[in-house]
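Project standup — Tuesday

K.O.: blocked on the structure for the chain from last sprint. Re-posting the sequence here as requested.
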Amino acid sequence: MQPQLTNRVPEVTPSFWLIKLMAVTMGETAADYLAVNLGLGLTATTLLMSGVLIAALIWQFGQRRYVPHVYWAAVVLISIVGTLITDNLVDNFGVQLITTFWVFSAALAATFALWFLSERTLSIHEVFTARRESFYWLAILFTFALGTAAGDLVAEKFAMGYLATGILFGLIIASLSFGYFALKLDGLWAFWLCYIFTRPLGASFGDLLSQPKEYGGMGFGTIPTSLGFLTVIALTVVYLTLRPVPRAA
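H.V.: unblocked you, prediction finished:
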């Protein structure tokens, strides 16, 4: 009898979306703290956090099943790095936000195309091998970079501000959820579209809480905001780790 293959990534549940939203919010505020408040700058921060992310992904790929604290540590770090990649392109290299939006859209589409051509599936419920997991994490990286570009484009280029931007993307996610539950929208594409749009949703509210009042924020600062969201993530991951796992019948 062949051993049963175990999915290496989590099922999509309310706790999944809660941690994901907290992770993207923290990714925005933590990136700002490291690059601006600590004075490391975008380049040094990107190199530092990319190194930490690589170590976390090596740890994740060493698992043969979904381990909550390992998986979500990688998500938090990839959220930070995805933010920094887009910020570097815009602030250090002068690439227009609209250009980064289309570049990362194309990169994500190419990732999905190669994933499907290689595996004949894009299912997030069948990430059994290292190759499928590689496509999964590459797609996630591009969703964070794309979401950062989309959020900044709306909030800054279109001058909607943090609150209005957050509400806009919240309504988009609500519409996709309605489409999935009521109109039978394909679950795979509903998942990835929501995954993309939770990035600007979380980042907008992260900026709203952390940025100074003169810039349209509430002035709580990056440290309290980041620690607050990190606490929610940690508590939820502890719950997922300690909860009883139902036995198969």
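K.O.: great, moving the ticket to review. The chain has one domain: 14-242. Helices lie at 14-37, 41-61, 68-92, 97-119, 130-157, 161-183, 187-210, 222-242.
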